[in-house]
Specification:
Two copies of one chain form a homodimer.
Chain A (H helix, E strand, L loop, with lengths): L1 E9 L2 H20 L3 E8 L5 E8 L2 H8 L2 H11 L2 E11 L2
InterPro entries (chains A, B): ABM_dom, AI-2_Isomerase_LsrG, Dimeric_a/b-barrel
Organism (chains A, B): Prevotella communis
GO molecular function (chains A, B): monooxygenase activity
Chain lengths: 94, 94
């Protein structure tokens, strides 16, 4: 199985709200993908800190996700609101 | 390094708010611990889904955390509001 943690910051709470809005459709469609076990966007106690936490059956499922139409359409729009670096961690486990 | 994902659900948004309230002190004190690199409580787009996402320098730092006074005092109170099982994942990485 694959657990993805993609943690990032945005400029302010208004941008955080906008990312959460844009992410709704991405969450909905990602959860329908074959091999998805969990997928959500989380907001930290620091409201400008956001985290995609995802669980995939295997690497193939995760690769199909990042090539999917909804990901390649929506994520670039979210990317524009990210400030600083993304802390992306991908863990494989049994 | 050690990344912890502790994901759980609570009964309703009022309980989610209560957990976030209780977690404030736990977050503050955990971030001061030696070997802590990040520590926050995140709330999902499903507001009753909460996630502690933590990063520790090594296993010793993480073990010291779960034995700490603030953890052993606060976490049992949070535990009472958790419904169903906790999805706890602990990843070691370089």
């Amino acid at each position: 199985m694959v657990r993805v943690n993609s943690m990032f910051n945005v400029k302010d709470e208004a941008d955080a709200q906008q990312v959460k809005q844009m992410a709704r459709q991405l969450i909905e469609q990602s959860r329908l993908e074959e091999g998805n076990l969990s997928y959500d966007l989380f907001q930290g106690s620091t409201p400008t800190c956001l985290l995609f936490c995802e669980t995939w059956l295997d690497n193939d499922a995760f690769k199909a996700h990042v090539a999917s139409q909804h990901y390649t359409t929506i994520m670039p729009k979210i990317q524009k609101l990210i400030v600083g670096n993304k802390d992306l961690k991908i863990f494989e486990y049994e």
